[in-house]
Amino acid sequence: MLTSTLSDTSLALLAVEAQPMWLVSWWKAVILLLPLVGWGWVVSAIYDKDAKRFYLGQKTWNIVHLAFGVAALAAGLLIPIFWIGLPVMVVILFADLAIYYTKRNADERVPEPAKWDLKKILASRKGSGEDKELAKRQQGVTLKIIGPAGALPAPEKETPEYEIRAAAEDIVVRASDARASRFELIQASPDAFAYSFIVDGVRSQPEAIPAAKAVAIIDFWKGAAGLDVADRRRKQSKEITIEQVGAPRKLKLITMGGSSGLRLTGVLDATKQVARKPEELGVLEAQKPAFDALVGEHKGVVLLAAPSGQGRTSTMYAFVKSHDAYTLNVQTLELEAEAVIEGVRQNVFDPSVDGAEFSTTARSILRRDPDVFACAETDAATCKELAKADHGRTRCYLSLKATGALQAIQLYMKAVGDNQLAGESLHGAVGQRLVRRLCPNCKAPFQPSPDVLKKLGLPPTVKQLFRKGGQVLVKDKPEICPMCQGVGYIGQEAVLEIYPIDASQRSLISKGDLAALKASLREKRLPSIQEAAMRKVVEGVTSIDEVVRVISSDQQQTAAPKRQPA
Prior knowledge:
Elements: H1 2-18, H2 26-53, H3 58-78, H4 82-106, H5 118-126, H6 129-138, E1 144-147, E2 150-151, H7 160-177, E3 182-189, E4 192-199, E5 202-203, E6 207-210, H8 211-224, E7 236-244, E8 247-256, E9 263-268, H9 270-274, H10 288-297, E10 300-306, H11 312-321, E11 330-334, E12 345-348, H12 358-366, E13 372-375, H13 380-387, E14 395-401, H14 405-416, H15 419-425, E15 426-438, E16 444-446, H16 450-456, E17 465-467, E18 471-474, E19 477-480, E20 489-500, H17 503-511, H18 514-523, H19 529-538, H20 544-553
Parallel strand pairs: 10-14, 10-15, 11-12, 11-13, 13-14
Antiparallel strand pairs: 1-2, 1-7, 3-4, 3-9, 4-5, 4-6, 7-8, 8-9, 15-20, 16-17, 18-19
C-alpha cells in the first residue's frame, strides 16, 4: 500500500516537471532588449559612420563597441537579480558611448566646427514654439541671424529681399565651411567688388561680385547688426550671432568707406582667435628660460614685433596673461578690445573725443603706476612716452609692426629719437611669425637627402621630415582628406625669437651700435625665427615649403613706425 502511494506521488511530480515553465518573465526580456537596441542604433547609424568620415579607426572602434556590447549583455543575463543587472548593463553601454564621444572630440582629426556639443544638440532639438515657427518661415534660408533686436525673420521666397539675404548668407557660409577666420568684400572698381576669405593666414582667390549686389549685401549686414546703413564713410563695428545647424558662432562685422570705396570685413569668432594661453604660444624648450626671465623681470619695455596678420594681438594678450592680474595692477590701451582678459583693466582709446591723442592717453595711464602696461598701437609719440616711464616699477609691452626683433629695436630707437633713452628703457624684444600646421591626418613623411639637410642647416641625424598631403587612401583609392579639405594644413603655430636685453646690450643700443648688438644676441645662442621654424619642421609640426613661404613673404623693410592697429 505504501509502495503504491509513493509511486503515485512520483508520477505526479514527474508530470509537473514535464510541463513547460518560464524561467524569466517575458516582459523582463523586452526591457533588457530596449537599451541594447538603442545603443546598437547609435553605434551603427552615427558612431560607425562618424569614425569612417574622420578616419578615427573604424574597425578598432567597432571591436571596442562589440566588446562593450557583449559585456553589457553578459551583465544583464548573468547577474541573478534583474533590477541590479539591468542598471549595470545600461551603465556599460553608456560608458561605451561616452568614451567614443570624449575621444572623438579630443582627436585632432576632427575639425573644430565638427566637434559635438551635447548641450547645443539638445537645445537645438528642444526648441520653443517661436523657434519652430521661425524655422518654418526660413524655408531654405541657411542661417539664423541674431542681432541687437533679436532673430531676423526670413523674408518670403521669390522676393528681392529673400534673394539679398540668400546672397548675404552665402558669403558667410562659404567662409565658415572653408574654416576661414575672416572674409572681405572690397570695392575693386566702380562696377565690381572682390570677395575673398582668409584660411590659416592664406587668402583665397578673389571672386568678382557686381557692385549693386555687393552694396545690397553690405547694407543687409549693417542692418542686421544695427549699424547706420546710410553712413558709408565712418568705420562701424558690431558683433552678432549666427547659427547654422544648431551651432551658434559670433560674427564681428566691420564696415567703412573711403577714397577706394566701400569695404565689409567679417571676423568669425574673433575672441577665440586671440584667446591664446601663454603655454600655447609655441615657445620651444630652448626658449623657455628666456621667456620666463623676460616675464619675471617686471621692468622696462619689451617689444612684441610681427608683420600684419601674424598674431601680434594674440601674443600681446598671452604675455599679459603671464602676469597675475589679481596681485598686480595690469592695464592695456587698445583701439578695440579683441577679447576680455580676466582681471585686467582694458582701456579703449576713443579718437572721437576732442583733443584725444593715443600717446596722451598712454601717458595718463602710466602716471597711475601700473605694474604691467600693454600698448596695442605704435607711433613715435607713444614710443617716447613708454621710453620715459618709470621702468623700475612698470613693465611695458609695446606691439610693433616689424619683420623681427632686431628691426623692431631699430624702429623703436628711431621713434624715440634718443638712443640713450631707448637703450636705458629696453629690456627685451620678441619677433614672431605664424606657420600653418601640417594636417595630422594626411601629412606625408619623406626621407631627406644629406644635401637637403645641409642646405637647411639640419643635422645628419634627422631621418624623416614631412610635407603636405591633402589626400588619404580609402580602399587603396586616393580621396580628398576630410579633415583639411585637401589643403594639407590645418591651424597655425607661432614661431618666435625671444631676446632678453641685458645691461651690456642696452649700452650698445645707447651707442647706436646695432651690428655689435646683433653679434651679442647671437652669442646667447637663442633660436632666431628661422631657426625656431626649422625646429618645428623637424618636429613634424610644419613643412619646409610653409617655412619658406612665410619667411620670404614679408622681407621688405618696414618704414618708420606709424600709427597701426595691432
